[in-house]
Amino acid sequence: MGKYEYEDRLTDIGPPLYKDMLPPVITKNFGQWKYHEILEPGVLVHVAESGDEIYTVRAGGCRIMSIEHIREICEIADKYCDGHLRFTTRNNIEFLVSDKSKLEPLKKDLASRGNKFPIGGTGAGVTNIVHTQGWLHCHTPAIDASGIVKAVMDDLFEYFTSMKLPAQVRISLACCLNMCGAVHCSDISILGIHRKPPLIEHDRLDAVCEVPLAIAACPTAAIKPKKVKLDDGKEVKSVEVNEPRCMFCGNCYTMCAAMPLADAQGDGIALWVGGKVSNSRTPPTFSKLAVPFIPNEPPRWPSTVKAIRKIVEAYAAGGKKYERVGEWIARIGWERFFEVTGLEFKHQHIDDYRLAMTTWRTTTQFKF
Amino acid sequence: MGKYEYEDRLTDIGPPLYKDMLPPVITKNFGQWKYHEILEPGVLVHVAESGDEIYTVRAGGCRIMSIEHIREICEIADKYCDGHLRFTTRNNIEFLVSDKSKLEPLKKDLASRGNKFPIGGTGAGVTNIVHTQGWLHCHTPAIDASGIVKAVMDDLFEYFTSMKLPAQVRISLACCLNMCGAVHCSDISILGIHRKPPLIEHDRLDAVCEVPLAIAACPTAAIKPKKVKLDDGKEVKSVEVNEPRCMFCGNCYTMCAAMPLADAQGDGIALWVGGKVSNSRTPPTFSKLAVPFIPNEPPRWPSTVKAIRKIVEAYAAGGKKYERVGEWIARIGWERFFEVTGLEFKHQHIDDYRLAMTTWRTTTQFKF
Amino acid sequence: MALKRKTPLLDELESGPWPSFVSDIKRMAEKKPACEDLLGVMELSYEEKEGHWKHGGIVGVMGYGGGVIGRYCDRPDLFPEVAHFHTMRINQPTGKYYTTEKLRTLCDIWEEFGSGMTNMHGSTGDIILLGTTTDNLEPCFQALAHEADMDIGGSGSALRSPSACLGKSRCEWACIDTQAIINDLTQTFQDELHRPAWPYKFKFKSSGCPNDCVAAVARADCSIVGTWRDDIRIDQEAVRAYAGGELVPSGGAHGTEKRALDIQKEVIDLCPTKCMEWDGKKLTIYTENCVRCMHCINVMPRALWPGKDVGATILIGAKAPILEGAQLSSVIIPFIKMEPPYDEFKEFVEKMWDWWDENGRNRERIGELIQRLGMRQFLEAVELEPDPRMIKMPRYNPYIFFKEEEVEGGWKRDVASYRKRHQA
Amino acid sequence: MALKRKTPLLDELESGPWPSFVSDIKRMAEKKPACEDLLGVMELSYEEKEGHWKHGGIVGVMGYGGGVIGRYCDRPDLFPEVAHFHTMRINQPTGKYYTTEKLRTLCDIWEEFGSGMTNMHGSTGDIILLGTTTDNLEPCFQALAHEADMDIGGSGSALRSPSACLGKSRCEWACIDTQAIINDLTQTFQDELHRPAWPYKFKFKSSGCPNDCVAAVARADCSIVGTWRDDIRIDQEAVRAYAGGELVPSGGAHGTEKRALDIQKEVIDLCPTKCMEWDGKKLTIYTENCVRCMHCINVMPRALWPGKDVGATILIGAKAPILEGAQLSSVIIPFIKMEPPYDEFKEFVEKMWDWWDENGRNRERIGELIQRLGMRQFLEAVELEPDPRMIKMPRYNPYIFFKEEEVEGGWKRDVASYRKRHQA
Ligand code: SRM
Ligand code: SRM
Ligand code: SRM
Ligand code: SRM
Ligand code: SF4
Ligand code: SF4
Ligand code: SF4
Ligand code: SF4
Ligand code: SF4
Ligand code: SF4
Ligand code: SF4
Ligand code: SF4
User: Fold this and answer.
1) Which CATH architecture is the domain C8-147 placed in?
2) I need a surface site. Which of A268, B333, C287, D68 has the fewest CB within 10 A?
3) Cβ–ligand 10 contact at C295 (below 6 Å)
């Protein structure tokens, strides 16, 4: 039990109360903010009805973070922010400055620390990439997460530190179809996909999985129970996969460790575009397939980086102010999207799942 | 064999060649028309590059038509149209006048024949109601066809003879879910629906149907095979219906006459709105449910007539020029549609079939 | 002549400004007792609120598998004259133009062999001869063939009578000759029309332009819709005349008065892609963004016309709800030239039918089959490349069915070597 | 300190302007051998292009059913230090505000009991403590509770750690106090959070306004989004100042220069309902047509604000693709006041959970259950009336499931009397 006695055990206390950690100026002006302004990329001021101000300096966080790094953040926050900071919903670090005179010194300090605390991520640019675990910790990934994020952010860095795109571009990454994140509704999504049906380890399947659960896991009913004779002649309960019905979702593997999908050649990236979450102007919408497959190319995934840059550049060139990626595509049409990005339109782009019919073009309205 | 010998039997000759029946001015100017103009409701002129003209007088047809009526049409066409006429894709009669001087006499003549040949049906008004057989001839109807059409057209007649609505209003009727017509894509659709699951005639089912076909007919898999003991003790093959899974499509009855659905209380009308077919401005789109159920009220279906009038009047009052019913609703929102028409929004309006999810509101954008 | 039956309910449908089918049937009843019984059946239905017809065994004419709908009254005790009351579907002349001579011949034949009642026309487009007995079918059929040059239309799991908007015969917007096309298809595929051999029905409809006056996209398994690829033709002077109030906008469809057309508000603002500009003198259309919706042309018929590089968009799969729900047709061939003998198109059609025939389940329309097996299988069968014009938007679910041959190294893998890299 | 392993591939990720997780892990590796092995696993994955982690048996802390993800390396032979490498999900303080004191305490505890690596934060919002052994779980948990006032978050078929946008703490647009709401829900439902008892996971997320900065509508089974019902508040003078170029449009989001805002083009033309008018002096918003999309407010933050009659729209059902495909949340309660103690809302939640618990299949999210059983059953269970605000459009298929009690005369019928009216 470590140093605490069983009698003293604390449970169900929940998280610490947020109120206790707000900077005093926020406590004072809670719910009384009047307006905000982004003073430069990554630097915001919020002004209260009372006239009080709070400055925010947003620095890129790479999310996976050592306690050494956190301690460095604390050291900075102590120096310029009276010990107050926060993290954003997209894993950036926000240094909360109550004393305006500390703003410039803070920025200088951050800049002095190499690539650790890039300032930016506000307004009509690219902010941090929401992402997941990848090869760093998860058991079902088709791709790495942090490495790809690093490669893409390095490449798009100019858009992190500026606000010159038509609108916000929200990029997300999920390393498998479980999609831990809002990958299904992002301007650009990077998704890890498998392309080979699961291996089946007949010799241990019955021991490690519940066969009915594995079967029920399959959205396309591709898995059937099967009795298999092993090399040693023993007959065991196992399953078989109707391979042409498999779309590599990996859900069987989630339920049954004896059905691994990962494969160096099979796995890679699909890119998706045009999703959004805000209700601003147009309703929230899903991201749509842009590139069905790009192979895994560690350590810097150059083809993926290039494809994303193509999309961002075409959008930067063609999008109108305020138009999110999906709004831009809606205006120019998908036929033009594939033209201006130079991406190839393939069979995989045409939906063939449950709601496929709703995505087909039932009008003669299109552009030649 | 009647008067023709077997040796002389003609088959697969197909329809008579349309070319042979065109008025000479059309033959001459075929494919060389320059523009048209609706001179008054129901009267069109088409002008060719050559300067030639053809006048068209459109008269309402009630589609079900005796040969006496057709002969009367012929008599008129001989008098004013050199024996030329056509029918439209919505079952109106078009008198084709090559000689302009015969236009006014024709109109006068038509007007003199009581309610037989109302002139109208062009432009931004209500044209003929596309409809089906109903109690006149079909075996699966939930409603009559011609009678309802007559009642509705009598009521909306002012819109047949004028062009003062925001745009074309295309009304269709189908007497059962087979929907023989473009009922699923009309500005206003009148649809016959059943609301009671099929009766099952166990004593003759196996004799008159193929049980597997009846089972396969059901879109919701509500039908299962069942052995039934008849009153006389005989055991027969039959089916049973899981009634809460039945949505009264009648497809079982189509496949199996021992499963009738028709019922005086169960059957009636559902009204649908906002569909269209043309690609003009907005793509073709399905009609959506407006009123889930109105009882059959022969001979003049007053509640149905009233509900349609409500819709048409709300549209006439609120629609902008060129806006089809569906475009009008898209602009004002469904929440407002139900308000301005006074129609009630009910559980049945919310889709619960295969693509239901795509019809739910996944945005905070709506009007209070 | 007074009728022997009382029809008080139906009688209510004689008044009012719209033509009365009741009056018309009554008129026919004077000659045809079947019509009197028909009114009787209807009156009974009006009283009971239930129909009184039933399906029967298959009836038809020799050598044909369809074109006749067998129908029997379920109260032959009350209405013996309509105990058998089948309909014959007669293939309409394309575009539904008639001479009075042709119609009179038809009337005479139907007076001899049937009830005298018709539908002009059925929803598919046929002339419907409404009500006769089994005995009359064959003689009526031959009389029609010999005397009226007419043939039976489709029913059952066969090609149905194709139909068309009036197209080039009387419309300035027709980009294709819908009548020639539909007539050619009808004649070419007589066998498919008369001898049901497919999983289910199949319909062709052709409209000359995207206004789609025959509702092809909603009702035809194969919708052939005229369109163009080049610039909309513009008569700038006429545009100015519209703006100046010298012409009647919309060809009078919204009122026959001349009035100044507000080109910005009534045309450009409603253009789905806003691909137009009007500076008060000149209308510019940026063709690369025009989706050929027809709106501007509809509003200014004396100033704008479709381009000259014309052809058709082929859309596949429309159907009514049974079984899986209604479908509109979907773009399969964005553009195809439609010149006789339409070989390229017909090759496509044959490939499509072969695939459907091979893979379709009983009562599965082509649109449903594409839904079930996926667009890819269909496109591969008809040898077409995927094109973004086929879709509203790419897939948004990640459930992509890659094929084995597309995946480096294929699908065959070796558990043992996997387990060498990854301990269990 | 030089590391013993070579990581040439990972090393490539140290350069470049974006922060390098590789450099950071290396830094930690100086203190923690597990981090060195973590780099080794990663390098191996970079070489082989396959991951090297696996699920294990269930691990956790006493009395809790979740909050810990058991993870094992599949090459313990090569990387013994990470043979066991579980993560602990620690429930974040709402809005993710910290004092450095709190963070330092956290770091110290994690230095003692874990790898020293974290995710700040996980996608659900938790602090992720990345990598420890089974033995350390319980002591770490208690140290966190006693020293940091922190508790474990959710995993498994339980309530997941609710999360919020920063709301009223620093945003002028927050219509509801997202932090108070989410903190209250988190505390109220501690049992549901720590003891999985449901068919599957359940997430709450709350955004203060329709900009939805916590992506609730895409990621939370229950999305609580702030909104208002009355007029948008307008400072007309400030509107004129925007038009006159005296202010920076969009609060600088599109560039920090002052410039004249073209209110017609940049605001009104992009308003989804075009419910605004600007005459050069006065901006009028027709509230009855405003759908509260936020665009105009976003563009003129110094002139426009949400109204005063504030509350939330409750949307239900968002989820990732597994199994049936991804869903966004759908409107279930168009408007609800959200004042503590949130009783009305909590009653709704309890009813929803009861229904889901009773009817949900294993691994069926609430959104999928609504799909399967239909919105009606759900609405009846939570005692809400249907409202057109719940839908984009009414159904377009005619497959309506009427209930027996809605049909006059019910469903029981009599074949014999039917056959009296209709002969077979
Ligand atoms: C800090 C943060 C909330 C938090 O609790 O952490 C936040 C803060 C603000 N958001 Fe946000 N948003 C934050 C995530 C989001 C998200 C969620 C996401 O991306 O996962 C969204 C939805 C994105 C989407 O639609 O896909 C989001 C959609 C918006 C919008 C709508 C943009 C649009 O036009 O679609 C605004 C309005 C604007 O920027 O004009 C907005 C505006 C704002 C404002 C201006 C609100 C205010 O008055 O302070 C804040 C500064 C904006 C900026 O950074 O440019 N915020 N904002 C989040 C910062 C994330 C980051 O580190 O980059
Ligand atoms: C005669 C007919 C074709 C035929 O082969 O028989 C026809 C003829 C014309 N149509 Fe049509 N349409 C005919 C059925 C249709 C249909 C099909 C239907 O309703 O089932 C449609 C699709 C309707 C829909 O979208 O649901 C149709 C959608 C149009 C449109 C597009 C209207 C719109 O804005 O959506 C136009 C253009 C216009 O009117 O501005 C048009 C325009 C025309 C023009 C002006 C074409 C021309 O240049 O001559 C013709 C006279 C229009 C009029 O009557 O106002 N026609 N038209 C059909 C007359 C039916 C009737 O008796 O009322
Ligand atoms: C006569 C006609 C209605 C009319 O009054 O005009 C008609 C009448 C029947 N239709 Fe139809 N359909 C007629 C056009 C249509 C259309 C419209 C069209 O073709 O443009 C449709 C919708 C388009 C489509 O094909 O999907 C149509 C969709 C159906 C369906 C549903 C098919 C589906 O896939 O959803 C059925 C049910 C079936 O096939 O079992 C059906 C079945 C029937 C049957 C054969 C019902 C039956 O099981 O016996 C009806 C015979 C009635 C009778 O007494 O003659 N009828 N039917 C139309 C044919 C006349 C003609 O040849 O011109
Ligand atoms: C850690 C985290 C990713 C990250 O790096 O941030 C994560 C990691 C895992 N997720 Fe997740 N999910 C995480 C947020 C999400 C989100 C985003 C959210 O909550 O906003 C989603 C999408 C929203 C949703 O709930 O649908 C998400 C949708 C899934 C799914 C698919 C669920 C579905 O209904 O489609 C699975 C599959 C499963 O449940 O079997 C899943 C399963 C998993 C598992 C438990 C995989 C497994 O079977 O073991 C992953 C454990 C990885 C690990 O090594 O810890 N995870 N997962 C996130 C939790 C951190 C936190 O508590 O803050
Ligand atoms: S997306 Fe998949 S691989 Fe990545 S963390 Fe989530 S469950 Fe694991
Ligand atoms: S990967 Fe998905 S589709 Fe393939 S067998 Fe497994 S569960 Fe089924
Ligand atoms: S809609 Fe139904 S009832 Fe009416 S004619 Fe067609 S099949 Fe018969
Ligand atoms: S009416 Fe339709 S849903 Fe009902 S049992 Fe028959 S086929 Fe099935
Ligand atoms: S579809 Fe086009 S070409 Fe055919 S009649 Fe209508 S407007 Fe003319
Ligand atoms: S046809 Fe339609 S899309 Fe093309 S310019 Fe005219 S209105 Fe615009
Ligand atoms: S969701 Fe609205 S209230 Fe919350 S931070 Fe974003 S803009 Fe502010
Ligand atoms: S909030 Fe949106 S809908 Fe409302 S007035 Fe502003 S822009 Fe228009």
Assistant:
1) 2-Layer Sandwich (3.30)
2) C287
3) yes
